[in-house]
Specification:
This protein has 250 residues and is of the alpha/beta class. Helices cover 32% and strands 24% of the residues. It has nine helices and nine strands. Helix 2 packs across helix 9. The longest helix has 19 residues. The termini are far apart.
């Protein structure tokens, strides 16, 4: 017997996936367009981009690809203020990606000469961790948005990988926001359009993986990163920051 309650019209399941291969870099773009697809896939409606460079990929070309993908989904006018937020702990290398990216962003919002020369106004901030401030990053960011009034936010954070294959090997971009600490079991305020009131683009790199992914055993609260994580984070931070700077026309 067929359970009609479990049937759905394929036309209602609106999701598109496209792959491209540029500069020895595999780019996978997935767009979830319907509520049904979002429910089944357990992901919000929006764009999901995965960038997978091969060993032959040049760092400059990876930055070019990041810039192209940001431009494709960043829906604000060129003269609008953009805020870049670096999430993470600068004293923990595997969690320092967002901080290091934010420190490499070329900020222009305070420089009238650059603004007069038609540079996009860009600001950057590192809200630090709740362990250092006693305040959730999302609360700090909402306060900054209220005062500074950017038109969109780019948030950069290190991610916890669900598989060894993705560890340090992919760059993920989405316009559906991000929930800092979710991969480590510390669910903080989600940073998305609903909570912040403006469009949010999230960029992340998986820098850690749970122990139970490695050996199949329960390892609650235990996470692994590679021995060369410092070099990896430095390189990824430079690549992503250059991509963001290029995307905003600097």
């Amino acid at each position: 017997m067929v359970d009609n309650n479990n049937l759905f019209d394929a036309d209602d399941f609106d999701m598109k996936t496209h792959t491209a291969y540029n500069y020895s870099i595999l780019i996978t773009r997935t767009q979830i367009k319907s509520a049904l697809a979002a429910e089944i896939l357990e992901k919000p409606i929006g764009n999901y981009i995965t960038i997978e460079p091969t060993a032959k990929a040049d760092d400059r070309h990876i930055s070019f690809v990041i810039a192209e993908e940001i431009r494709r989904i960043l829906k604000i006018k060129y003269a609008d203020l953009l805020l870049v937020v670096g999430i993470g702990n600068r004293h923990m290398t595997s969690d320092a990606l967002g901080v290091r990216v934010a420190e490499k962003i070329i900020v222009t919002a305070h420089n009238q000469e650059l603004l007069d020369a038609n540079y996009r106004p860009v600001a950057a901030v590192v809200p630090n961790t709740m362990g250092k401030t006693g305040i959730e990053s999302g609360v700090i960011i909402r306060g900054i948005i209220k005062e500074v009034k950017p038109k969109a936010v780019i948030v950069v954070d290190a991610l916890c990988s669900p598989s060894l294959e993705r560890l340090n090997s992919t760059i993920q971009i989405t316009d559906t926001g991000i929930q800092p600490g979710a991969g480590l079991g510390n669910k903080c305020l989600k940073l998305d359009k609903e909570t912040l009131g403006i469009p949010v683009i999230a960029i992340g790199v998986p820098t850690t993986v749970a122990f139970d992914v490695i050996d199949g055993k329960s390892g609650a609260g235990k996470y692994f990163c590679t021995y060369d994580i410092d070099d990896i984070v430095k390189r990824q931070a430079k690549i992503i920051a250059n991509g963001i700077n290029r995307a905003v026309g600097i």
